Every structure is written in structure tokens, then in C-alpha cells.
């Protein structure tokens, strides 16, 4: 069983450089927010939370990093290192981002705007949260 799903982003190859596009039919959700992580110091980690409702799609625009996913029953580690491939993370999945390479940029396409109430930031709370009916 996989916790996260890798999705190929269409790549238009050209001798002048490649182009990838994320449009409404690429992701299984409408997106309302786009943000990116960069200049992550060596050894630092990001994430460390789950969302109650929100879904996310992560892309390594540059460099690489690992995404550790946990659904309270099992854990999966996925390496992202291609700008034409992203990782779909459903709600109710704990995520940690680590092992960022120098110059790595992580783009996040999110299904909703920021809401602190949607975050679970304590792993024990996450393990005991009832996500039934939230997917």
C-alpha cells in the first residue's frame, strides 16, 4: 500500500528548455494556495504536521528532498527530485520534509487557504484523531 501518490506533470520538451504546466485536470482537487520552501539550512526539517481537510501536491522544482508520510499505521519515505513529478498528499496524512539538498526548492500546491484550525501539529494527537468522513 502506498500512502502518497506520485503524479507526472506534463512536460513539453524544447531545445530551448522544458516547460511543465499544472492545470485543473492534473490534480484531483481545486487549488487555492501556492507557496514554496527554499534556503532550508542543512539538517533542518519542515512539515511535522497533518491536515484535517486540506490536500497538498509537492514538487521539487530544484534539487531534492525526502517526504516522510505516516497514516498512523505505516510509514513511507518518498524522494522528490524531478520538477515534472509531484507527490499528492491527502488529508489525514502526517508529513515531514527532510534531507534537503543545497539549493532545493519545494513548491506546494494546496487545496485551501491557510487555516491554523486545519493543522494537527502533535503526532500523538494525530494518531488518535478520527478522520472518518473527512476524505
Automatic annotation (TrEMBL):
SUPFAM superfamilies: RmlC-like cupins (SSF51182)
Limits of the Sugar 3,4-ketoisomerase QdtA cupin domain: 7-129
InterPro entries registered for this protein in UniProt: QdtA_cupin_dom, RmlC-like_jellyroll, RmlC_Cupin_sf
Superkingdom to which the source organism belongs: Bacteria
Pfam families: FdtA
Protein name, entry field: WxcM-like domain-containing protein
Source species of the chain: Seonamhaeicola sediminis
Amino acid at each position: 500500500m502506498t500512502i502518497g501518490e506520485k503524479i507526472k506533470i506534463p512536460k513539453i520538451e524544447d531545445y530551448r528548455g522544458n516547460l511543465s504546466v499544472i492545470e485543473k485536470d492534473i490534480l484531483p482537487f481545486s487549488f487555492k494556495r501556492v507557496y514554496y520552501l527554499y534556503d532550508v539550512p542543512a539538517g533542518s526539517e519542515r512539515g511535522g504536521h497533518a491536515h484535517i481537510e486540506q490536500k497538498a501536491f509537492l514538487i521539487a522544482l530544484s534539487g531534492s528532498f525526502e517526504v516522510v508520510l505516516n497514516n498512523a499505521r505505516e510509514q513511507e519515505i518518498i524522494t522528490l527530485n524531478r520538477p515534472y513529478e509531484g507527490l499528492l498528499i491527502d488529508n489525514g496524512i502526517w508529513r515531514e520534509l527532510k534531507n534537503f539538498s543545497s539549493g532545493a526548492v519545494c513548491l506546494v500546491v494546496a487545496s485551501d487557504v491557510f487555516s491554523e484550525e486545519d493543522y494537527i501539529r502533535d503526532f500523538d494527537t494525530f494518531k488518535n484523531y478520527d478522520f472518518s468522513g473527512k476524505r
